[in-house]
Amino acid sequence: GRLAAIARPDACVITNIGECHLENLGDRDGVLKAKTEIFAFMRADGKAYLNGQDDKLATVAFQDGRVHAAFGSGAEADFWSEGTRDNRSITFFGIEGKGSVYAKDIVNLGLQGTKCRVVSEKGSFAIHVPAPGEHMVLNALAAAAVALDMGLTPEEIAAGIAKFQPTGGHNSIVQTERFTIVDDCYNANPVSMKAGIDVLKGVPGRKAAIIGDMFELGSDEEAMHFSIGEYAAEAGLDLLICVGRLTKHCYDGAAALAGRKYFKTIEAVSAALPELLEDGDTILVKASHGMHLEKLVAVLKKM
User: pTM for the whole thing?
Assistant: First the structure.
């Protein structure tokens, strides 16, 4: 709230209501309430851009100066401090019609990203999102929706999206002589972890995931880690390496996966990697930032 009060935004973009910060916010309804509090500080003629595919965000509406949303109890949230603000509006974005700005004709290019067509009231145009995963298409749609309202042309938007480059630790692709590394070790929650596994399972050749603990998940943290292990097993990965305290539950959840390993420390993983990996492997590295798996990315680069 403090930063939003300083910024007084013209545009507010919310990409999803995930299972993050649950230790403090309780559940996804708490996450929804916390994220939508930004609307209290949006300018009177501001606009929100929300992911229409997200079941929580799809319920959000502005009416009579209030935010209406499914906050669990059905209660409305009175965030306004300056009276009625009826001139706010919402643009929803999504895949195949899930919003007024949406993507169709989607072509998955694997680690090279996704090609698709953006459809809006202002026309349609082709884009190439140069980062893998459906979630990156949704991020590009959010950017396109804001840009269209700011007066950019389809050509300018397509050119800008095509130049996007992930920063280190944020789903960036590192090619070495031996491996392809998906460096996504800056942050993790159950939604983004599954998205990372989805990206990995779509690539050819041997697929390995090195995953660490996800923090701030609250009382259900063990079950959430177990479900990630199950998800990895269902994805048919060749190798799942779990490191940390909580990922012991990922290891247990992946009981159906023959190629699963568990280590308590980064040092133990580092020592074992030469025996576990093969030339040509594609390797996802993902965990909450406090696990410092960037140390393993550095090891992989030198192998």
Answer: 0.81
